[in-house]
Write a structure and sequence with these properties.
Blueprint: H1 2-5, H2 21-27, E1 30-32, E2 36-37, E3 40-41, E4 51-54, E5 57-58, E6 64-65, H3 70-81
Parallel strand pairs: 1-4
Antiparallel strand pairs: 2-3, 5-6
Protein name: Thioredoxin-like fold domain-containing protein
Organism: Micromonospora rubida
Length: 82
C-alpha cells in the first residue's frame, strides 16, 4: 500500500527472517519489523542498537503500534526513493 502511494507498486519486496543476534547486527535490524532500502533503515533511529527485539511505532494519534502507519511509510519512501 505504501509503495502504491508513491507510484512504486512494481517494486519487489523481500521478507527476510532473522533468527540470531549476529544476523540482526549484520542486517542492521533495529527490532521487528525493520524496513530496509539498500541496507538503510527506512524509519530508523541511529541511536537504537541492532538486535532481536520488538519494535513499536508512534501513530498519528500518539499511541504506539507494532507497525508503522501506511502514511508514515509512504512519507519515508518519498524522501528515500522518489
Amino acid at each position: 500500500m505504501a509503495l502504491d502511494a508513491v507510484g512504486q507498486a512494481a517494486v519487489n519486496v523481500e521478507f527476510v527472517v532473522v533468527s540470531s543476534e549476529p544476523e540482526a547486527a549484520a542486517a542492521g535490524l533495529a527490532g521487528s519489523p525493520t524496513f530496509l532500502i539498500d541496507g538503510v533503515d527506512l524509519l530508523g533511529n541511529e541511536a537504537v542498537p541492532a538486535g532481536l527485539t520488538c519494535r513499536v511505532f508512534r501513530t498519528e494519534s500518539g499511541s504506539l503500534a507494532g507497525l508503522p502507519e501506511v502514511a508514515d511509510l509512504a512519507r519515508a519512501l518519498r524522501k528515500r526513493v522518489v
